[in-house]
Amino acid sequence: MERLLTNYFETGSMILFGIGFVTLLLHNNLIKKIIGMNIMDTAVFLFFIAKGNIIGKEAPIIKGIHKGIEGYINPLPTALMLTGIVVAVSITAFALALTIKIYEKYGTIELDEITRMRGD
């Protein structure tokens, strides 16, 4: 239990991931599914950024005195998460555009009504 309280960023990201996953699975509305997917993305970003941060070290921006390689954190996790955020925004925009097209064709964004209309 103590480790859960010590690693509160990781614990919070796991809770967020669970909320997003449940939202993605239980709702038939396409917009709610997209929101659940975005919550899951955010949880993954929070988890990796929390793992990339080391208490007592600084970002690798040299201001004045160079502290050596042990004084700075690795910038790679942060750079990868910035790339992941760009990809997540692009996927969200694409999913919303597809949702608009589905609404124009079927007049609804509820998956159970769409499958009933298609006869599947």
TrEMBL record:
The chain crosses the membrane at residues 6-26, 38-56, 76-98. This is Multisubunit sodium/proton antiporter MrpC subunit. GO terms for cellular component: membrane. Keywords: Membrane, Transmembrane, Transmembrane helix. Belongs to the CPA3 antiporters (TC 2.A.63) subunit C family. It is a multi-pass membrane protein. It is found in: Membrane. It comes from Marinisporobacter balticus.
